[in-house]
Every structure is written in structure tokens, then in C-alpha cells.
TrEMBL record:
<dbReference type="Pfam" id="PF00106">
    <property type="entry name" value="adh_short"/>
</dbReference>
<dbReference type="GO" id="GO:0016020">
    <property type="term" value="C:membrane"/>
</dbReference>
<feature type="domain" description="Ketoreductase">
    <location>
        <begin position="31"/>
        <end position="217"/>
    </location>
</feature>
<dbReference type="InterPro" id="IPR036291">
    <property type="entry name" value="NAD(P)-bd_dom_sf"/>
</dbReference>
<dbReference type="InterPro" id="IPR002347">
    <property type="entry name" value="SDR_fam"/>
</dbReference>
<protein>
    <submittedName>
        <fullName>Short-subunit dehydrogenase</fullName>
    </submittedName>
</protein>
<feature type="region of interest" description="Disordered">
    <location>
        <begin position="283"/>
        <end position="315"/>
    </location>
</feature>
<dbReference type="GO" id="GO:0016491">
    <property type="term" value="F:oxidoreductase activity"/>
</dbReference>
<keyword id="KW-0560">Oxidoreductase</keyword>
<dbReference type="InterPro" id="IPR057326">
    <property type="entry name" value="KR_dom"/>
</dbReference>
<comment type="similarity">
    <text>Belongs to the short-chain dehydrogenases/reductases (SDR) family.</text>
</comment>
Length: 333
């Protein structure tokens, strides 16, 4: 006789169906996944990781030669990838690329908005540099929104779609010197939150990943700013976002910062101000180096920078932040 579970039905009649649905949900085999900013950094690593799960990849980047190399490497390893040179800040480029992909492959199941640009500069050094804010918004916000809007109609028509936005734990922390970058990511976070609520009946879902600092070319001009994760770690997180489709994936430091904002906002400001005073501006931010200090996620791999002399205040601050972060788990739902 078959045992009954709490719901009243046979265990072996229910579990296989549930497990099959759960496995099917997590399986990326044959899924059409589009990743922007795929020629280096997080995008490149994510492309390899997603290809290993059997997905059909559509990879976008501005630099065609580097993109072609990634596509060739994935194909050589037995994966299926297609490269499309595209500038997400250009509406005509995005429209042409999306139309080409849909004409050639029929549909896109999942989108990873990864292409990004970062600028590390204190606001008082940016009063004559409005373009810092404009160009981060152009890539990080409008570029991602442009891709989402282009793919949304066919996702709604098929009643399936999942969009992963690469945001930053800095949005939760409000990290000093990143006003331009974090404002653009915060705008994208809210866009996704509103759109997800509207798309619920259409089965189009969103995951926002609040990434910690990742060792990619994009952070090179800022030097070493604290603990960081590898691109491979970030790629595994992207795979988790695609397979399990949670609402958000956060890390401990971001969760801790949000608690601080809610319960001790003034203390949080004091801690961040001490962090701001302890770590100096980069040479580029002070105008002592070439001004193209904010490469996007497709930039070339940087050379290792010499270690900066650490101050006592800096060491104390970084140690305190690391210890505090370990007390709080990241949130994942």
C-alpha cells in the first residue's frame, strides 16, 4: 500500500511530477539566452557557464573581434553560441540586432542585462562633469531598458520570459564616490520592480543581482577597493538567477547596509563617511591620469596595479566592515 502525505495524495504519485517540474524549470537545455556585454568580464564568464548548461546563446558586444573569439571558444567546447555586434546605447543598433535574432532563431527566452559602465569619482569633483552621469545612465539604465522593451513583446506573446539585471550591492550600501554609477543601477532596480508586478500574468519574471565588487576590467581604474569576487563566482550567480529565477540575489554586505538604512541611518552615514575619508580618490578622478577612466564591461583585461600603502584608518575600517558583513547572510528570494 502506498503511504499518503499530509495533503491526502500518494507520495509516489505526487513527488515524481513535482520533481520533474522542478528539474524542467532549472534546465537550460535549449533555452535561448541573450547576454549583453559578453566579450569580457562577467558577461564572458557567464556565457561559458550558461553554455555548459546547454543553452543556445546570443552574445552581444560592441567589439566584434573580441566577441567572435568568445563565440569560437564556446563552439570549440561543444556549445552553441551566436555573436552579434551591437551598441545597447543606440536604438537603431538594438532594433536591428533583436530583429535579426528573432528572424534567425524565432524567440529569446531569457535576457541578461550585463553591459555596464562604472565611474568612481566624488561628487565634488564632478560638478563640471555632467557627462559622467549621462554616460552611465546611457549604458546601465537606458541600455538595459532598451533591450528589455525590444524583447518584451515576444515574451508576452509566448507567455514566458526571464530577465536578469546585473545591479550592484553598492545600491544598497550607497558607496561613496559612485554616485553616477549607483544612481543608474538604482533606476534599473526600480524599473524591474515595477515591470515585474505588471508582467505577472504574462509569466515574464525578473531577477536583480546585487553584485559585490568583481575582479573585472571595469574596476581597474579604481584600484583595490576591498574584498572582491572572481568573474567565475559572478557567472555561477548568473546561472542561479536563470535556473531558479528568484526575485533578488543579495550578498551579506548589501543586506547589512539595508538594515543600517532602516534602523540606524545616521550611524550608517558616519561609517560611510569614514570609509570615504580613509580611501583616496584615484589618480584619474583627480585629473592626474588619462580621463577615460570608466571602461565598460567589454574593456580589455587590466594589468595588475601596484599595491597602495594602506593607512591605519583604512585598515581598521576595512576590518570592521568585513567582520560586520560576516554576521549577516545574503538574502535570496
Amino acid at each position: 500500500m502506498t503511504d499518503n502525505h499530509a495533503g491526502g495524495g500518494p507520495v509516489d504519485a505526487v513527488e515524481p511530477g513535482y520533481l520533474a517540474r522542478r528539474r524542467a524549470r532549472r534546465d537550460l537545455t535549449g533555452r535561448h539566452v541573450l547576454i549583453t556585454g559578453a566579450s569580457s568580464g562577467i558577461g564572458r564568464s557567464a556565457a561559458f557557464a550558461v553554455a555548459e548548461r546547454g543553452a543556445v546563446l546570443f552574445l552581444l558586444a560592441r567589439r566584434g573581434d573580441e566577441l567572435a573569439a568568445v563565440v569560437d571558444e564556446i563552439r570549440a567546447a561543444g556549445g552553441e553560441a551566436h555573436g552579434y555586434q551591437c551598441d545597447v546605447t543606440d536604438s537603431e543598433s538594438v532594433e536591428h540586432t533583436v530583429k535579426t535574432i528573432l528572424d534567425e532563431h524565432g524567440h529569446v527566452d531569457m535576457l541578461v542585462n550585463n553591459a555596464g559602465r562604472s565611474i568612481r569619482r566624488a561628487v565634488h569633483r564632478s560638478t563640471d562633469r555632467l557627462h559622467d552621469f549621462e554616460r552611465t545612465m546611457a549604458v546601465n539604465y537606458f541600455g538595459a531598458v532598451r533591450m528589455t522593451l525590444a524583447l518584451l513583446p515576444q515574451m508576452r506573446e509566448r507567455k514566458f520570459g526571464h530577465i536578469v539585471n546585473i545591479s550592484s550591492a553598492g545600491v544598497q550600501v550607497a558607496t561613496p564616490r559612485f554616485a553616477a554609477y549607483l544612481a543608474s543601477k538604482a533606476a534599473l532596480d526600480k524599473f524591474a520592480e515595477v515591470t515585474a508586478a505588471e508582467m505577472l500574468a504574462d509569466n515574464v519574471t525578473f531577477t536583480t543581482i546585487h553584485m559585490p565588487l568583481v575582479r573585472t576590467p571595469m574596476i581597474a581604474p579604481s584600484g583595490k577597493q576591498g574584498p572582491s569576487e572572481s568573474p567565475e563566482w559572478a557567472a555561477a550567480t548568473v546561472v542561479r538567477a536563470l535556473t531558479e529565477r528568484p526575485k533578488r540575489i543579495d550578498v551579506p554586505i548589501g543586506t547589512l547596509a539595508e538594515y543600517g538604512t532602516l534602523f540606524t541611518p545616521r550611524l550608517k552615514d558616519r561609517i560611510l563617511h569614514r570609509y570615504y575619508r580613509a580611501l583616496p580618490d584615484s589618480a584619474a578622478a583627480k585629473g592626474e591620469a588619462p580621463q577615460d577612466e570608466s571602461p565598460d564591461s567589454e574593456a580589455l583585461v587590466p594589468q595588475r596595479e601596484p599595491r597602495r600603502n594602506s593607512t591605519a584608518a583604512g585598515r581598521v575600517t576595512r576590518t570592521a566592515l568585513r567582520r560586520a558583513a560576516r554576521l549577516v547572510p545574503g538574502t535570496y528570494w
